[in-house]
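ERR on first pass: missing label on line 2. Operator R.T. fixed the label and resubmitted. Corrected input:
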Amino acid sequence: MATLAKLIGAKQPRFRTATEYVESTLKEAILTGALPGGTPLRQEDLAAEFGLSRMPIREALRQLEAQALVDFYPHRGAVVTEISAAEGADNYAIRAALEPAALRLSVPQLTPEDLKRAREIVDEMDAEDGQSRLGELNRRFHMTLYSRAGRPRLLTLVDQHLAAADRYLRFHLAAMGRNHLSQEEHRGMIDACSAHDADEACAILSQHIETAAQNLQAFFAPRQE
Amino acid sequence: MATLAKLIGAKQPRFRTATEYVESTLKEAILTGALPGGTPLRQEDLAAEFGLSRMPIREALRQLEAQALVDFYPHRGAVVTEISAAEGADNYAIRAALEPAALRLSVPQLTPEDLKRAREIVDEMDAEDGQSRLGELNRRFHMTLYSRAGRPRLLTLVDQHLAAADRYLRFHLAAMGRNHLSQEEHRGMIDACSAHDADEACAILSQHIETAAQNLQAFFAPRQE
DNA sequence: TATTTGTCGATTGGATCCAATTTGAGTATA
DNA sequence: TATACTCAAATTGGATCCAATCGACAAATA
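pass 2 clean. output:
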């Protein structure tokens, strides 16, 4: 099947199966807002779009369902999950619980190279103002600090919910008045990690997430949801 | 019509699709240990077992993969995830982060009826010594206390990881020396919730989970993992 | 007119068929 | 003997086909 080879690319097969490719592509489209909440995802259309049959689409949609990115209605199809104040609060509550836990486990194991990379990412964010790119850098920054936690499943969950938060990024950025995420807090976390001060790093992180959650609530507050 | 069905007492189909049925059945089999870690899950065999084609099996396996209950190896098949000290520690780390957060949100909203039900479940656990039933009661007890958190996605995650912890229940029970989970802690949590003392309730809960985690590590310690 | 019933198009759920990949046994070769 | 290679069996990944279900709209009934 030539289509698969084309999709995968010859050198480094980023995706082992078409299903993985579809899942990854759809996920990114949802997270960046290219597919907004409420968009119906018709299997037939997606299959045509991807040049595949409906089967890999179905499996990919199932995976996205497990990540709470699409809703399934039997015999009626899948729909991109709506974003709302409630969904956002849910996401932030999960992050507020998981991320400090991951950071606390990771701090004692962080290497100077990890911290150097984190610094580079933060610097890069200073110069960046594209929302989608900012979201990715932010994600990479956070995951770098958590990366030594030694709990793969925990990190997977954190990564998923960090990614899901991208859907709310524009509210956060709008509230911050400019295209900058709280860089002082990012740098403060790096400093605390360098000093092996997990308590301080977690305190900043909790505040960091709390601010984002409040910005979201403030945005939704006027229009009752 | 739904009302009529309810009046008549007609059993509404618990599963809307075959995929849901397969997923639920396999999940329970894995969690209770009927399908131990490492068991290969051949689609053909399962299809014959369920009297279905391979397709609903495949979709169900995908869902289980997203819950970290099976591992997928492209073109080689799915295998029940191995339990290990590392996997268990991962699970407990996630629970230790999520459950206090859920409890804290829930405590102010808990009703006297919720607490009454929690008490009844704990009492029922006193008389029970079947492991699988104990696991289910334990799960229901915890979820009852968290149920008013008002964060559906958070509760879903908690429920999933509480369920996954059933795979480690026998280690915990063995360490406790008898078929009783820490009932004093369970009752202490109820009392703290009754007094709307979220801090105390969370403190007991954290200790509760920590104990379980340590019991697991102690079990795996002799045999280096 | 309001409510129920019937029919039909759209869409997904499930079955069957074909292709691609992995693995390991067996063989040839240095 | 060790290593590389070939090839076939087992198994899954993907495509195509058919059936079941849902929703909407029209027709019938009170």
